[in-house]
Amino acid sequence: MGEIYRKPAVGFRSEEYVRVQSVEEAFSYLKKYGEEARIIGGGITLHELGVMGSLSRVKKLIDIQQLKLDYINSEDRSIKIGASTPVYKIRDHEVFRNVALRALAEASDFVPVQVVNNATIGGEICTGLPILSLPPALLALDSSVKCVSADGERIIPLDNFYVDYFLTELRSDELVKEISIPVPSAKTGSAFKYEKITAADYPMGSVAVRFSIDQRGKCTECRVSTGSLCRIPMRAKKTEKMLEGTDLNKQTLDKAANEISKEIDPISDLRASADYRRRLARVLFVETAEIALNRTKM
Q: 0.90 exceeded by the pTM?
């Protein structure tokens, strides 16, 4: 018989847990403890990493739930989402019923419900794991991240935020304060789909697509992003370029599906092989692109 995999039962307890009352207080802890400190919001990912024994260097947990970063505001042709905003509020918010932004609502609709109710958008972004759903949807919507520290703030396009597995551009003395999404133009539709083994599992692959079309139906702007397929959430820029300026129909979408299957560098793990993920990318892209295209006409 094959060996049965069991998740290691490792207890994690930080030396200090502090609930800060201001960003300045958070900065002071981050500057003092550096890599030994971690920001905590909903605590979902930190719990998982602690059970796996991956937080041995972490001594200080800095809870930012009192910093009033739980909000969704529309302003200056953009939508601002505070880093502490729970996923369920994004799923249920009226602004994301807009067909142009629907991909983010769909990416926020998953089980188990305990995770959706407690996980925050900041945590989903900062973890640096490709298996989470919000990053590919946010990539398709051209999102940017406001990172703040005692030295000031940086605005980083999400497309430049991910470096490698568990590795982002966020510095040890920074925290993510806000996510910004530009309001899309008219005749825009977006969609998100994933494939799982079970409903409560992490996806084997996910794809987000956003199309903008002109009055004649030609694609003026395209975004295609993936999650769970490669080492990081990423945009498929060659596929995007292939589609922009074309008539979006079955033939062009099939060609783009072939392109995305070549463009990605898929991973193999317990959920699926690289070859399966390459095939899955093609299927997920076509299904997601057809939904996004239909939404441009609503």
A: yes
